[in-house]
Amino acid sequence: MPNQKILYITTEMYPYQEDTNLGTVVNKMALKMHQEGNDVRVFMPRFGQISERKFQLHEVIRLSGMNIIINDLDQPLIIKVASLPGERLQVYFIDNEEYFKRKQYYFDDEGVAFPDNDERAIFFARGVIETIKKLNWVPDVIHLNGWMASFIPVYLKTFYQSDTYFKDAKIVLSLYNEKDAPLDKGIAEKLQFDNISGLDALNNPSFQSFVIESMKYVDEVVKGDEFLDGDLDVAFNETTTSKSEYLDVDSINKLY
C-alpha cells in the first residue's frame, strides 16, 4: 500500500550507528517503505558521535530557533537534516548543545547513566512533535524505535491531547532488548510542569519502565527483537494493546 506518509522516530539508525540490531532494522524498514513509493521521514537525536561532515548534516534554519522549556529552563531546539547516503530519504536530527553534544549516548565512560537522560528524552519527544507540526506534514503511521521514542506517545496522549494534528495517525511501537538504566527521580516534577502525572512508570522511572508505559498509548506493539528479555517480555505478553510477534523487514508493511 504505497503513498502512505510514514514517520520513523528512532534513537539509532545505520549508518549513523553501526552494529546494532535497532539501527539496522530501522534502516531496512525505512528504505523498504521509501523504495515502495511511500513518503518516509526519519527523526533521531544528533548524538555527538555522528559526524556532521561525513554525513553532510546541515541546519534547517526555518525549523530551528524554537525554545523548549524543560524543568523551567529554555532549551534551544536545533534541527539538522541529511539524506541517507545514496538515497533520497530525509533524516532529521534533533540537536541541542546541552543534551546531545557529548560523545557518549546514555552512559559516561565509567558506565554510569547520565543524570539528565530524562530531560534529554523529554526534549527529544517535544522537539520531534513540534518540528513535525512546523513541517506541516501529517504522518499516517508513526513507528517508534528506542527507549527515548517511547516518550512520544505519552506526550501525544496527555500534553498534546487536545491538539488534533496527529489525531488520525496510527502509532506502532517496536520493542528491543536495550540496556536499562534508572531515570532521575525528579522526572515526576518535570513532567508535572507539562501537566503529565499519574504514570505507572513514575513509581520506578527507568528507560524500560517508560517503554512499558508507552504500550498503553499506541495502536500496535511489535517485537523488534525476536526474543525479548525479562520484564519486557512479560509486559508484551500482558498488554491488552494489539500486538504482533517479530516480523522480518519484508513483512513489516503488513502492519501498516
Structure at a glance:
Helices cover 28% and strands 21% of the residues.
Indicate the topology.
Layout: E1 5-10, H1 21-35, E2 39-45, H2 52-55, E3 58-59, E4 66-70, E5 73-83, E6 90-95, H3 97-100, H4 117-135, E7 141-145, H5 151-156, E8 170-175, H6 187-192, H7 207-214, E9 220-223, H8 230-238, E10 243-244
Parallel strand pairs: 1-2, 1-7, 2-6, 7-8, 8-9, 9-10
Antiparallel strand pairs: 3-5, 4-5, 5-6
EC number: 2.4.1.21
Catalytic activity: [(1->4)-alpha-D-glucosyl](n) + ADP-alpha-D-glucose = [(1->4)-alpha-D-glucosyl](n+1) + ADP + H(+)
Organism: Chryseobacterium kimseyorum
Overall description:
The protein is globular. It has 8 helices and 10 strands. Strand 9 (220-223), helix 8 and strand 10 (243-244) form a beta-alpha-beta unit. The chain has helices at 21-35, 52-55, 97-100, 117-135, 151-156, 187-192, 207-214, 230-238; strands spanning 5-10, 39-45, 58-59, 66-70, 73-83, 90-95, 141-145, 170-175, 220-223, 243-244. Strands 1, 2, 3, 4, 5, 6, 7, 8, 9 and 10 form a 10-stranded mixed sheet that branches. The chain has 256 residues and is α/β, with parallel strands linked by helices.
